[in-house]
Every structure is written in structure tokens, then in C-alpha cells.
Amino acid sequence: MGKILIIDDDVQVCETIESLIARAGHEGVSAYNLKDGLSKVSGGDFDVVFLDISLPDGNGLDYLQRVKDSSGAPEVIILTGKGDADGAELAIQGGAWDFLVKPSSIKQISLSMRRALEFHNEKQNKAQCVALNLDNIVGRSVEIKSSYDLVAHASGSDANVLVNGETGTGKELFARTIHDNSKRADNNFVVVDCASLTETLVESTLFGHKRGAFTGAQADRKGLIPLADKGTLFLDEVGEMPLAVQKSFLRVLQERTYRPVGENREFKSDFRLIAATNRDLEAMVKRGEFRQDLLYRIQTIHIHLPALRDREGDIRELTNFHLSRLSDRYKVPPKVASSDFYDVLNNYDWPGNVRQLFNVVEQAFVAAGAGNTIYGMHLSDALRIKMAQSNLRKKGRTGGSDVLDKQVSTVSEKTDSPSAELQPALSSAFSTLYSGDLPSLKIFKGMAEKRYLEELQTRYPGDVAEILKVSGLSRSHFYALLKKHEIKD
User: Fold this and answer.
1) In this predicted structure, what is the pLDDT of residue 121?
2) Which residues, other chains included, contact 398 with Cβ-Cβ below 8 Å and sequence gap of 6+?
3) Residue 129 pLDDT class (50, 70, 90 cuts)
4) Domains of the chain
5) Neighbour count for residue 212 (Cβ, 10 Å)
6) How far apart are CA 223 and CA 313, in angstroms?
7) Mean pLDDT estimate for the chain
């Protein structure tokens, strides 16, 4: 028997779905606003949640991830009162199971609910059978946890995997984790540095060669592909692979066969492929820099790793994890980081991501010497200056206040501070919003967001392209915000 929650302010919709749930032999519960719905989600393990978008106290899409991350990890079926392609895009990108437009037929609702329950039960059973080892992956943020399900999915299959993310986000670590949790864990994990592959050496490097095959081939050499037989072949920075090499590799990937240089026979290699890149391969395909057929082959499962600056709350956990490893490596008593050390770390953008963070932590660890506590002063002067400048730019952008939501700021927190010409506009907006008694911070954020959207439409009437350029919003996010605040397009 499944446990299902309906969060919808339409009593008739709730009663209809509750009736369907009861007839199917499951338990149904209703909530008529977000506050009550979120309270019920946090207090019970639900298998499926029907979540309306337009609710009296907020937009359901804004809380989609929170519902999915609740204790029961339910499948979420989004409900909306009218067709909304952009809302559907946001829902699917957020991991919703289905997107239903009200009024939907009884058959459609029942079918979606049944399939969601079947999927949820199968997923739960697999999770109980396979204990995923994530010992070396650290983080509890929503952003990084969204990758864990894909790691589990990839570990339980033999499908090709593409891992992408900025430099230093841990792409090879995730690839090794997939290998270590797969049925190939007892065999080789072979790394191919695609940036070092050249047209003249690619065949010898990947396939191997026989003695005397060319000048300098004084002995037989086994290539990387035969070494990966029964194991995993990891293509590191696959976006750097030259086009001619891509063509050679495509056939190997399709047939799983290779021929060493100087050999007249072909051999088979049963390898599993995982590729990684920090580049936008789809954009490279459009520019003719990467083969489209190869891209299709390598991304059966696609895992995107978020940048460290987007992983809210993970810096402290990553720092503690690395400090523990450093104590073991240097064979010294454990060291702890002071609050001012974390303050400095948390106010930096980390362009080098986790790799840069670990290097910085190790430098401070060494600088602390025999001391048991690491302070901000133990960081290098150059880094402290960069972090201080970054912090000052952030404060300059917000005028020392945190009341503006990231989504309504005219400039990103990661870019240059606003020019002097923007200051009068900001001051005017503040004076309007601050008139009368101060509202709660949440209400103020909503007011500021709505006012900003209205100003965008006033300045650039009908020019969506310019609005998206100025605001930094995606098209789907922009339309979702208009709907949230009931602003006409």
C-alpha cells in the first residue's frame, strides 16, 4: 500500500484524487496550502506527492526539491491549472515524475500515479539491495545530492557515462566511485588523458603495437584499451580529443574491437566507458569541433557536477574531511578550523572548486605548524587579499544588506559590482519598498522581485531577448516568475 499526499488549494481536486487513491487501495492525505503540505511532508514518509504550482502561499515549483529531499524521497507529480510549457520545463529539470494539466482525466491521473508508485517501489528495493559506497564523496547540499541518484543508477548498469563540470569539481572521483560500486570493481580503472593524444601516437597508445611495427618499437606494447578489458576506460577531458582521433575511437566504441599497430588481427576488449569534460560538448558539436555521433555514444547517462560556489553549506564539511585526511597523512594530532577561517572560505568564489579548496586548506594546515587551531591568518597573503576583495565587491553590490534576493539582483554576486549609474535606481526602489511599516524579509523579497520584473517590462516592452540579457534569467525562469507574481506577459 502506498502513501500519497496531495498539495492543492482546490478542495474538489483533492477529494477527486483522494477517491482515486482509496479505490486503488492506497492511503491519501490532502493539504490545501504549502505550509501545511511541507509540514506533512516533513512528518511522514510519502511515496508520491501531487504538488500544485499556484498555491495561496507560494509557487509549488519553488519547493519541488525540498519535497523530493524529504525523508520518503517521494516521486512528485506537478499539477497546474493551464498549459505552461516553461513550467513543465522547470518541473522536469527539477526531477518531477510527471506534469499534469488540470483538469486531467481520471484515467490519466490514475495511470501517472500507478507508474510513479511502481517506479518508487523499484527504486527503493534497489537502494536496499545495493549499498552505495560514497566514502570519498563529501557533501550534503541539495546541488551535490542530486548527483548521487545518477551515480547509483550508473553503478548498477554498464551504460556509457558522461560526467561534466568545471575544473576541480571532482569528475575523476565520481568516475572512480561509479567503477568501485560496479560489477567491474575488481578489474582495472584505466585513465586516458585525451589532451595528450596525438594523431601519430593515438593508435599505439590506445591499441598497443607489436615489436618492429615502426622505428623505435623494440618490444610488444599493450595499449590502454586492452588494459581496460573487463574494467573501466576513463576518457579524461574528452573535449580535448582531436577530431581525427574521435573518428578512430568511434569505431572502437561501437564494435569494442581494436587492432594493435603491426598486427593483422583484431581483438575484443569488454570495457565500460566513462568520459569527463569541463567543456560544453553540444556547443562544440555546433561549431564542428566534436563529432555528434560520438557525443550520442558517450552520454547514455549524463552527470553534471555543480561548482563549489553553488554548493551551499558544503565548504565546512569538505574542509573538515580534508583536515582529517591531512592529520593522517602528516601523522600529527587533529587540527580544527576557527570560525574566522570558515568566514574567509565562505566569502570566496572558488574558481578552482574543490581542488583549489583542498590545496588552500593544506597550505593553512602546514602554516599552522604545531598549533591545534587553524585561523584565517594562516592563509597566504595573496589569497587573503583576493578573498577580501571578493567579499568587499559582494557587500558593495548589496549596499551592506542581504535583503535583495539573488534572482532579482541586476548583477550576479559573482560578477563586477554595479556601476554608479545603477545606484540611483536601487535607491529609488528601496525607498518605494521601504515606505510604511517594514514587512517580513520573505514578503520584502517577493515585493522586490515583482517590482524588478515590472521595471524590466517597462524598460524593454516586448523585447524578451533584451530582458533575458539584462536580468541574467533563462527564458523558462523568466516566464515562471511572471506567472508566480501574476504579471501579464
Assistant:
1) 83
2) 404, 409
3) very low
4) 3-128 (3.40.50.2300), 142-306 (3.40.50.300), 310-394 (1.10.8.60), 410-484 (no CATH)
5) 12
6) 43
7) 83
